[in-house]
Amino acid sequence: xxxxxxxxxxxxxxxxxxxxxxxxxxxxxxxxxxxxxxxxxxxxxxxxxxxxxxxxxxxxxxxxxxxxxxxxxxxxxxxxxxxxxxxxxxxxxxxxxxxxxxxxxxxxxxxxxxxxxxxxxxxxxxxxxxxxxxxxxxxxxxxxxxxxxxxxxxxxxxxxxxxxxxxxxxxxxxxxxxxxxxxxxxxxxxxxxxxxxxxxxxxxxxxxxxxxxxxxxxxxxxxxxxxxxxxxxxxxx
Length: 237
Ligand code: ADE
Prior knowledge:
Structural class: alpha/beta
Bound molecules: adenine
Largest sheet: 5 strands, parallel
Strand order of the largest sheet: 2-1-6-5-7
């Protein structure tokens, strides 16, 4: 998959792009990431990309034209216009399901806002999907873009050694993950739950399911209700 990112701060991405699973996915050719400096597409000779907000209000807004020039040049280069995402606290909240769907596309392009955001018209012109990473406001779209890149990368075929790596974990099945333990069996007086040492795979699976249900009900009653509803529906069919 290919991801293009339009940002005022491409240097923010360099460590993330070179490290751990994302670094390896890029080196192995599963993932191509291109960061574009938005100022390079400014119609202004000095590279200005922002302006004041019509109707009043504090702060500056990123103008439509630099993004439009960047996107046009990208689609000319690729021969098609990728799906465009604008990271914004106003967007639909990103979840595992949407990340998985996006990871199945050949290319996505991410627009990072800064200051007060981006001129609405460029989002409409290019049909951008607005995505948020949670109900809080960050200083810009760069960290959210990295979050999106990270979660999508690990679902690309071949990136993780084993598909079950993410099929087992929190959010994939609609439940949060059960507790896990490694050596030593006893640490600061705390023992690993007996059942996990029993070698009885049926019992272990049942314990993990019970723990998943309990942690989901405790920490995320919204997900718990959704899961219970879905199970009830499945039983009715
Ligand atoms: N930009 C600023 N805050 C954001 C958020 N919560 N999600 C996505 N993009 C953002």
